[in-house]
Structure formats: C-alpha cells, structure tokens
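Teaching note: in complex prediction, the entire set of molecules is handled at once rather than each chain in isolation. The prompt given to students was simply: 'Predict the structure of this complex.' The entities are:
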Amino acid sequence: MNSIWTIAKREFKTFFDSLAAYILLVVFLGLSGFFTWLFGSDIFFIGQATLMPFFSVAYWTLFFFIPALTMKMLAEEKRSGTLELLLTKPITDWQVVVGKFLAVIMLIGVALLLTVPYYISVSFLGPIDHGSVWSGYLGMLLMSMAFTSIGLFASSITNNQIVAFLLALFIGVFFLIIFDVLASSFTGTIAYFFNYLSLSTHYESVSRGVLDSKDIIYFFSITLTSLLLADTVLSKRNIIE
Amino acid sequence: MSVSVNNLTKKYQNQRAVDNISFEVKTGEVLGFLGPNGAGKTTTMKIITGFMAPSDGDVKINNISVLEAPESIKPLIGYLPESNPLYQDMLVLEYLEFIAELQNVPKNKIQGRIVEMVKVCGLNVEKHKKIAELSKGYKQRVGLAQALIHDPEILILDEPTTGLDPNQIVEIRNLIREIGREKTVILSTHILPEVEATCDRILIINDGKIVADGTSESLRKQAQGQEMLRVGITEAEDKDKVITTLQALDTVGLVDPVAENNNTFFVNSKDDLSSRKPIFEMCVKNNWVLSELTPIETKLEDIFRDLTTN
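The expected output is the structure of the full assembly:
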C-alpha cells in the first residue's frame, strides 16, 4: 500500500511539473464552462437549472484527455529503462500499475472538484435536481476509471507514446460508439450483448440517477480487467518458456 | 550474503544469451564480470536482480530463490542498471527520497541516508538541480547513490564508471572497494585495469559461457606458462652470433629478434625455467653490454583477447 502511494504521489507531482496538469485543468474547465454557460445548448438556452450540458461536454473532453495522460505512463518508462529501475525495487508490477492509475484518478478528481462552483452557481439560478448532479459526477468518475485503465493497458503494450495514445482512443471508441451502433443494428441476444458492452449505455443510466449495481459492476470490471491486463503485459518478461 | 547462480540459461528465440552458467560470490568479495559486448553480462545481472526470469536454472541468495521469493530478495539488492535510467524531470534530492521510500527506508532515517549518499557520492554541488541538467558523470553518481541508499547487502553494478572522469573513477573504485569489504559486490565492466584495481575475483564470460574464473594473478599464471624476456645486447660484433649464443643456452626455448631494433631480442624460456642469470653470465663471458633485461608480463588484455576471440 505504501509503495502504491509512493508511485501515485510521484506521478501526480509529475503532472504538475510537466504542465500536463495545468493544460488539462484549463482546457477542461474552459471547454466545459464555455458550453455550459455561453454557447450552443447552454443552460440559458435550455432555460433549466441543470448541469446536463456540462456533463456531456466533460464526457468528451475526458475521453480525449485521459489517453493523453496515460500514454506515457508505462510506454515511456519502458523506453527509457526506468521500469527496470522500479521493478528491481521491492515493489510488484501490480503496485506500479495501480499507483499510476490512482495518480490519474486523483488529477481527474481535482478537475471535477474545480467544477463545483458551476454546480453552486447553477443552483442559485433555479431549482436544481441535486441527485442528478451527484450521479452525473459519479458517472464521470466511473467513466474516468474505465478510460484510465484502458489507457494504462494501451501504454503497457508499446514503447511508443503516440501508439499508446491512439490505441487507447481506438479501444475507447469501441466502448463509446461502436458497441452502441452494433447493438442497434442487431436484435435479440446479440443486441443485448453489445448493449451491455457499450459504455455509453451504462454511463447514461448512471448519470440519469439510476444507481443499478449492474452498471457499477460494469465499470469496475472494465477497470479491473484492463489493469490486470496491463499487469500481465508487464509481467510477461518473467514468464519462463 | 552469498549469491549463488546455478545452471542459469536465458534464451532469446533461438539464441542463448546465457548458457548454463554457475558461479558463487561470497560476502566480502568483489566479483568483476568481464566480457565483450553481447556476452551475456547484463542479462545475467537482470536475472540476479529478479527483473527477468531465466529460461532455466536459478539464482539463490542466502539459499532463497530469486524466482520463488522475489519480495524477500529485492530489499537486499542495490542495483545500477546498464544505461543508468533516471527520472530526468525530478530533482536530485527528490529522486533520492522517492527511491528511499520505495526501498522502505524508515521515514525518520530517510533524510539521514540522503545526506550520507550526497556526501559519499559527491553530489553536494548539484543536489538541487534537475537530473536532466546534470552532466553524465553526475548522473552516474546519482545512479550509484540510488543503488546504495538503503545500505544493501548485495550491490550489483552494470558498468558503474562509464562517463566518469579519471578522478571520479578513482573515487568510485575506492568506494566500491570499501563497500566490498563487508558486502557482496558484482560489477561488470569493459575497462580491464578497473577489474584489476577493484575486484578480488574475475569472471570472464563469452557467448553466454564462463571462460575464466579466478584472481587476476591466477589468470595470468594460467595464461603465461613460460617466462618471456626482452633482452638488449649492445657492442656485440655480430647479431647472428648473439642469437646463436642465446639459443645455445640450456634454459632458452626460443629467440626472436625484434625487427626494428638490431640489438633487442625476445627470449622465451623453457617451461618453469628462468633465463635471466644465464643471459647475464653469457654477456659477461663475451664482453657484451647487457642494456636491457625486462620480463614481459602477460597483460589482462591479452588473456581477455585470447579467451574471447575465436
């Protein structure tokens, strides 16, 4: 546990040292603020005190930003050899992976926390559905967990950051769009199957405020599976042929 | 703590990077790992540190297998990997603290250890800099500092003196010697004088196999066999006469004139015999002047070349 925290702390600090964190925060707050308050179907346009426009923008912003945060996490360590340095210390591959995962989640947490003023200001404008706001935040966090772990997996299988980034986006697109499209073009069990795999379905149901254990399990299993896959890829060097 | 490597083999596809090697290192011993590029030194070290699993064989440290219980072995080892990977974006002190935490150095001792490492590795001037800004030699010192920070029982250094200037090399060698008195040290290098200066024992590896194992003296003796002298004789009336007279001595096996110098000869003695005295006496008898009589030692370089070129 201690080692996981040591890794997470370092990664978190690196975000702020390398400007990555500031860029993420500024762009995330800027984009979501812009679309929430000023442009398109902003809250004045819909005339309702709701954070729905914010969540739908934040959803896509994170979809692109998380792979950018995770792409170098393992790929760069493999390329520069620091992974060897880490893994010859008393720490397991799993602890390294989880530590890095935590660092990203912490940064996303900070980003979401900084949007609380939006929530407070909107709540002054009219009667707001507090439950749906909280479930929106929960959905955001669950989705970030899934994308972060997918990003880490993509980063674990290559030495090249760009490849890791594109691969994470590619996998993300499947979960976000393609499974959804497939689900609607099939019927019966296959449709149900793709519908279950589609992340957007589960995200919508969580952010609507329906707290179904099925959705929670979905997000946690994607997260856990991807992290375990990343761990397995790292441990591959240890397999005795 | 003793490190014992038993029948270690590592295959990459069809190539055997390490081919069934076994050796043992005891506490208080500094083992020098020599070999040409690609001989398997780094692979062996990676396996000992538990970073990589062997295809076959095992490494035991105090009779505990690295494969079976890496979690109890890793804290004992300080490791400086080959290319000295570092987190370039961290500050020197920050980095050392990070490594100390990973090594589970108790919280209240971390600062003390860092101060000591900064002193021992001579990092005082550069300690507030970013690692990326350091020169290669200072980076190497940071690499050493991180390997030593938890005061490990076993130190594994893959080419520890690359990039250091001659003064630093001497300092680092002394440091390794000092550590080697109580701890177990395995170091690999290309620099042959370094092995002689720091190591108690030399292991030469080629094509994944151990080709020599012993102290530098024993390796020399083994390679040399016969005494070899460089003899200079002046004021002799005839070069050929000198050669025939030398050849006639009981102890002399082979005489070989040095091409570019008329008065100098290489003289090989017969096995286990010394020709120094007979040569001197011969010169006295013939009224020649003995201007040079130098024993030629086989250099470690020659032994190395002999063993590693086929």
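Point out the following to students. Chain A touches chain B at residues 2-3, 6-7, 10, 14, 17-18, 80-82, 84-92, 237-241 (CB under 8 Å). The longest helix of chain A spans residues 52-80.
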